[in-house]
Amino acid sequence: MNPLTSSVFRTETMTVPGGTETIVRGGRDLFPLLPQALHGVRRIGVLGWGPQGSAQAQNLRDSLAGTEVIVSVGLRPGSRSADDARAHGFTEDNGTLGDWLAVAADSDLVILVIADAALAAEHEKIFAVLKPGATIGLSHGFLLGHLQSIGSDFPAGHPVIAVCPKGMGDSVRRLYQQGATVNGAGINASIAVHADPDGHATDRALAWSIGLGSPYTFATTLADEYRSDIVGERAILLGAVHGLVEALYRHFVIAGADPVTAYERSTESITGPIARTISDSGLAAVRAATGDEDLFDRAYSAAYRPARDLVAEIYDEVAEGTELRSVILAEQRLATRPMSPIAGSPMWSHSAQAHARRDSAPTVVDPLTAGLFVATMTAQVDEFAVRGHAWSEIVNESVIEAVDSLLPYMHARDVAYMVDNCSRTARLGTRRWGPRFQAAYEQIALPRVDAPADQALVKQFLDNPAHEALAAAAKLRPTVDISVERPTTT
């Protein structure tokens, strides 16, 4: 892993299990240092206007306001996103909106936030027009995995960096805006320096991360980033959550609960009080919050091993390139055969009723649901630790991103909405692995819940070093309200 050093920003040492990590704390007081840290970058081109592209372009523009650094957006001809970009102040008239290849050719830092499969198909066109020495910026390591799979590489002579926010674009923008009143409010980010021919790549990556509003930035590698990110979205960040709530809803209905109550005990419990408890007090606090530690322990014991097996399988598929190839192959099918929405499942018809009862009958931490969910989250944490990921990456990709970004969004709009409206890579992964998790819960975990808890496994959870790592990361987090408003319709 590349060491995190900077000639501009002050680094800090964070104590984690087994050692220390070097991180950089963010804050709006650092914005005046951004032009210096960018080392000669005068034009930043953001290619793409999806959730990450729009959030990052706006945040960087706002952070660099009053400097000589210009942030522009590049879109492909006929893009349906052009009107929205214009509505947010990026226009042809002021020179901040243009053709994607023209913007790439004119920029000193080119941030590639178009869809993964599209980037895999079009990267050669982008590379061909780059200025000599222009910095290539990524927010995901997917392209590295693709290039390795085809025996290719990034063009020589160009710095290659990544800044990867640990949250969806909605959170990147919304929490940045909260930073106007809470210094440092935002979403944590990892950075990776893959190529550094001019010696300034780390400073540029840190400037980009701080400009996005990241409260703290930690170092990783592009390979570790895409593995943890793609595995995470197929497991505890989305795929496993989808499979879990579907399994639990059916379980509660079969046991005699009415559909709205079943929805509350499954979906609402996870996206509401369980997520808030972890965010505020950590993983172990969920066990105490259930009011039934024995049922939590039995559920945890029943779910941990099947969840761990699935996370390990997903990790192998990602590391070997199988999952990446499946995304690229799907792009060809989806050109004429769009994905069907998953919101047609019967449980989602009760979402509005459950949301309407929140004020009059607040959802509590259901011990069965909590045990299964925390077991799955811990299984991902443990698998990432065995695979050698840094603790900052482990807790951000497995816990913080879930409870401070994705689950609050799902609480506002429901899990089905998230599955149907996230990135194509995540949607494909959730559709592939969500049913696998659902089957594991229904066929393996839930039938074993009545068995006595595995006390050795429970002790491993209570003694897990992740608690220490999560507490260390929590000390760097600004106090902000991470809730999102519920829309009038979904």
From TrEMBL:
PROSITE patterns hit by this protein: KARI_C (PS51851), KARI_N (PS51850)
A Gene Ontology biological process term: isoleucine biosynthetic process
Superkingdom of origin: Bacteria
Keyword Cell cycle: no
Keywords associated with the record: Amino-acid biosynthesis, Branched-chain amino acid biosynthesis, Isomerase, Magnesium, Metal-binding, Oxidoreductase
KARI N-terminal Rossmann domain location: 24-220
Positions of the KARI C-terminal knotted domain: 221-361
Keyword Iron among record annotations: no
Pathway: Amino-acid biosynthesis; L-valine biosynthesis; L-valine from pyruvate: step 2/4; Amino-acid biosynthesis; L-isoleucine biosynthesis; L-isoleucine from 2-oxobutanoate: step 2/4
Species assigned in the record: Kribbella capetownensis
Residues annotated as binding Mg(2+) 2: D229
Protein name: Acetohydroxy-acid isomeroreductase
MF GO annotations: isomerase activity; ketol-acid reductoisomerase activity; metal ion binding
Similarity comment: Belongs to the ketol-acid reductoisomerase family.
